[in-house]
Specification:
The chain is α/β, with parallel strands linked by helices and 226 residues long. It has 7 helices and 10 strands. The strands form 2 sheets. A 6-stranded mixed sheet has the order 6-7-8-3-9-10. It has a 4-stranded antiparallel sheet with strand order 2-1-4-5.
């Protein structure tokens, strides 16, 4: 995959052994690029920026990417994440051959039917046991209280993505403002080990770190790969 921005020569490739960095030094261009990507992730069409596959076919950013705009309030329990989590748990239960839960669900249904039969009405009830609806009934959510630092929160988000296979690319603007070089290298290695691609969008590019693949757009709107 690669990211193409209209008006610029180079495209930003995503590699399995590198973290992609988009360094934009002009403030207005930096802001507009984040806005354009965020809009496309949210389903708003744009002709300014594109996610392409290796055959130059456009991919939907809403299906492939997510952007973390607030590192202090990462939404681990978004509708998309919980949907994937419920699907994963339901699949695991159905494939395990476990009958205990199935029997419990049947007993619960029988108790409900007995109560219904006490009423002078006719009712219908599905015979299918929907595990996902039961998970929703118990309000199952991801517990995030154990993750305090920004590095821990991002690594946990990578864990979620690696386990549930939700997004192809996680985008984080301005991450280098919050992490040291040592923490960045640790995060890079963690994401690469878990086969989760990162895209950092940075305004103040200083030096290239290990594992980084960088597309720079300078103050004169010249673009080049570092």
């Amino acid at each position: 995959m690669k990211l193409k921005i209209n008006g610029f020569t180079n495209e930003l490739e995503f590699y399995n052994d590198k973290v992609s960095i988009l360094a934009i030094k002009d403030t207005k261009c930096f802001t507009n690029t984040i806005q354009e990507i965020n809009d496309k992730i949210n389903g708003i069409e744009s002709d300014e920026i594109f996610l392409l596959d290796d055959k130059e076919n456009e991919l939907k950013m809403s299906n492939k990417m997510c952007m973390i705009l607030d590192l202090f309030n990462i939404d681990y329990n978004s509708k998309k994440i919980l949907g994937k989590l419920y699907d994963k748990i339901s699949e695991n239960i159905e494939n395990s051959g476990e009958t205990k839960l199935q029997n419990l669900f049947i007993e619960i249904r029988k108790s409900i039917v007995e109560e219904i039969n006490e009423l002078p009405f006719e009712f219908t009830m599905s015979d299918d046991i929907d595990i996902i609806n039961i998970l929703k009934l118990y309000n199952l959510k991801v517990d995030i209280l154990s993750y305090e630092t920004i590095l821990e929160r991002i690594e946990f988000f990578i864990d979620l993505n690696a386990t549930l296979n939700i997004f192809n690319v996680i985008i984080i603007p301005n991450l280098k403002m919050y992490l040291s070089e040592e923490e960045l290298i640790e995060l890079y290695k963690y994401s690469l080990y878990n086969n989760v691609k990162l895209l950092l969008i940075e305004k103040n590019f200083t030096q290239k770190l290990e594992y980084e693949h960088i597309l720079v757009i300078d103050e004169e709107f010249e673009d080049y790969i570092v």
